[in-house]
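Please, is this right?
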Amino acid sequence: MRELWQLGASALSDLIARRAVSPVEVMREVLGRIEAVNGPVNAIVSLRDREALMGEARLAEAMPPAGWLHGVPVAVKDLVEVKGVRSTRGSPLLKDHVPVADDGLARRLRAAGAIIIGKTNVPAFGLGSHTVNPVFGPTRNPYDLSKSAGGSSGGAAAALALRMVSVADGSDMMGSLRNPAAWNNVYGFRPTAGLVPGEARDGVVQHRLSTDGPMARDLTDLEALLATLSDGAYRLGSGKAPRQPRIGWLGDWGGAYAMEAGLLAQCETALQGMEGLGWAVEPVAAPYPAPALWEAWTILRQFAVAMSLGAHWRDEAEQALLPAQAKWEISHGFARKVAEVEWAAETRLAWLAAAREMFTRYDAVVLPSTQVWPFPVEARWPEAIGGQVMDTYHRWMEVVVPASLAGLPALALPAGFGTAGLPAGVQLIGAPGADATILALGRAYHEATDWPALHPPAQSP
């Protein structure tokens, strides 16, 4: 049998349920793995006391199974409040914050039997697809320590890739699941908006734009965690792939999205794999004007962030500690007029209607997960792509906006490796509510490719 730390959550769950291994053995191996490989990568932060964790594992060993994650160690994204565990959101404003209650996501994980061992690293307040913050520093890419792991679920993706965790939660407003999944050669799923419950503190606009979702190295674990995060709203095994799926390839959205050299070609190798499965893949013209999508997105995102972080902005001392990304979003958000927000909401609905029409012709559409390869970890963000200047801190991630703005289910699939040995990925996007179908298609793709097992980072098996 492989080392326990190499296994996925479902495999560990089965072994624990059959008492073939104990939660104590699993915890010991997982903590040993973290000690061995986390240092250079910095994916796991706020790791709890070893003796306390071993005590919880011994308690799990003595108790009957509480759920499918019974006795399985998990690390929760550091945007989530976890009772008794330092929860910083990557900000010096919260560097000593220890919650007295769990967020809903943490409660659902505990109810499934998971043992929360610590947190996964994030950019400050989750802003920007580059995991670096003043509290813990950067998370580095396991495939090249000089590169970014992406974000905001960069810590989760890197921890998964290096087998420090068997499954992970993430969240996605603007590609925060999809970008790091691509750059760390794992899977990430952004569910249909509303499938996974939000937190009590979420504003209405924020909840419609952002969602929690699962990350894993295979589709079995991904679906099982989705069922947990959705509080049972997603039913395991409910999806069935069409016999001959019709797939639309959106490429660079008719030239609207700048792409770094070699990235589109690498994504097209994933399409060739889909065709090898008997899927009918064909190019699709851009179904909606990209400038309108971008303008609507930036307005709604600015408004949502301003509502979420406005209290820090109003306090002069706290404002000084906000990252540049937050200051940009909040200042613009408070300057927006009601008519602008209304126009953005109307544009969102118009794009959703156009997307629904597109999905009468296709079972799914495909876009690249990123517009660039992993960039140097010291950089703030990519400031230009192929000579085209990026006019905001996040313009280089515009390719994730269509799914986010319409609240569509989007599965980030590994797409192999470029000539520099760095991972790429594609988004498999479906109609609203087609989560089960998209995951069924993803399962077929995974069984045919299994990039996470075939090409782990050098520090992995």
The two ends are 13 Å apart (CA to CA). The longest strand covers residues 410-417. Residues 4-454 form a domain with the Amidase signature (AS) enzymes fold (CATH 3.90.1300.10). Residues 187 and 218 are 7 Å apart (CA to CA).
